[in-house]
Design goal:
five-stranded parallel beta sheet, Rossmann fold, 2 domains, binds flavin mononucleotide, alpha/beta
């Protein structure tokens, strides 16, 4: 996810320095190149050698280091970086950065920096909640610094409360939007995903093999590109980023209500969910016992069509995109659905994509028809966002 990105990791002198090592390794694992700057206090907790050995780059600690190019290391470092991440940020660093104090390498480069900044504070709960710290954090947020709030739990000092360094994966989640063009900023998207589950009796259900993976990836990708996203998630749909609002549902009827509620007047609705076409006509409250008399008959009735309902509601989303999983004549059926359901585009894909890590398909809109070649689902999701964005330009 961070392939080719250059991250300047600033490490402050708190007990969580050892976790910055873990964070740096995650950045590298995800394809980033990392340069580390440590404060003098940070080197009291973990030696620069640890970061140096694991990053393969020299660790910078000294403002007056004559080996740095023309003695202007702080300027070179911020010019080199795509983003600056400070983790852990001490209360002292927060105060210094807020007030423009530049008395060591890290604080000096922060003053010279014009690249996106992500701060991950970690400290004792009283230090975190202190009026001075909270004011500093708010001022930094106003200056467009992104802040990953510390997690709550047991702290190194033995107290309980907020102040733990956020999980490295969460820090990466928060970093991605800073490194991605915010082309969807200001837009509201609603996406449904996953299977629906229809109850037959107190324990038995009817469902399908959809994983919800693609819808969840689409929700993440749209949020990273700046959209505010609501995911209506069928059972088993994977977790998404924390900034994606999630409404969990089971049956097609529940999914229908949640989608119609959430999609009023939004910019984009994408129906990726595998909604059951049928439900049991008379679901039973109790568990049905064996009858001992051979076969039993079960009556099914048709579920309403969620995408068609969203596409025809009064405050219809500006764009409605439907998915169609077919086993044959993919484009033909997609064109037919496009007319019949009143949607703006169809993503036709093969039923073999269900539960698979790869996806391929066809993008079919009124103006455009394109093959989307086989690729990992995360990439497929990003590709669909480009198509949907292109559709907005066509209007
Ligand atoms: C054992 C120990 C642990 C500390 N842990 C933290 C911490 O987690 N967060 C924090 O803000 N300060 C912590 N401090 C205080 C900072 O080290 C101190 O404020 C220092 O001046 C920070 O320097 P820096 O901001 O330049 O890295 C700790 C100090 C000690 C002695």
């Amino acid at each position: 996810m961070l392939k080719g990105k250059r991250i300047l990791l600033g490490v402050g002198g708190g007990i969580a320095v050892y976790r910055a090592v873990e964070l740096m390794r995650l950045f590298i694992k995800q394809g980033a190149e990392v340069q580390v700057v440590m404060t003098k206090s940070a080197t009291e907790f973990v030696t620069p050698l640890t970061f140096e050995a694991l990053s393969g780059n020299k660790v910078h600690t000294d403002l007056f280091d004559l080996t740095e190019q023309h003695g202007m290391g702080h300027i070179q470092l911020v010019r080199w970086a795509d983003a600056v991440v400070l983790a852990p940020v001490t209360s002292n660093l927060l105060a210094k950065i807020t007030h423009g104090i530049a008395d060591d390498l890290l604080t000096t480069l922060m003053l010279a920096n014009e690249k996106p900044v992500l701060l991950a504070p970690a400290m004792n709960v009283s230090m975190w909640l202190a009026d001075a710290t909270q004011r500093n954090v708010n001022m930094l947020k106003e200056r467009a610094c992104a802040v990953v709030e510390p997690a709550t739990g047991e702290l190194a000092c033995g107290e309980q409360g907020s102040g733990r360094l956020a999980e490295p994966a969460r820090i990466v989640q928060n970093l991605l939007p800073l490194l991605t063009k915010q082309v969807l900023k200001g837009q509201h998207w609603v996406i449904n995903a996953g299977p629906t589950v229809e109850a037959w009796d107190a324990v038995r259900t009817m469902s399908n093999r959809a994983s919800g993976g693609l819808g969840a990836m689409l929700a993440d990708a749209a949020a990273i590109q700046g959209a505010s996203v609501c995911l209506v998630a069928g059972k088993g749909t994977p977790k998404t980023r924390q900034d994606v609002e999630r409404v969990d549902v089971e049956s097609a009827a529940e999914m229908m209500h949640a989608c119609v509620d959430a999609a009023q007047g939004v910019d984009v609705f994408v129906g990726t969910a595998a909604v059951s076409d049928f439900r049991f006509a008379k679901p039973l409250q109790h568990k049905l016992k064996r009858q001992g008399n051979g076969n039993i008959q079960v009556e099914l009735i048709e579920n309403p069509d969620i995408v068609a309902a969203v596409a025809t509601m009064k405050q219809r989303p500006l764009q409605v995109i439907a998915f169609a999983a077919e086993s044959e004549n993919h484009v033909g059926y997609a064109q037919d659905k496009l007319q019949r359901k009143g949607v703006d585009a169809i993503v036709a894909n093969d039923v073999s994509n269900m539960g698979n890590n790869l996806a391929s398909g066809w993008w079919v809109s009124k103006q455009n028809q394109e093959v989307i070649k086989r690729m990992p689902k995360a990439k497929f999701a990003k590709c669909l966002i480009q198509f949907i964005h292109g559709l907005q330009d066509e209007r």
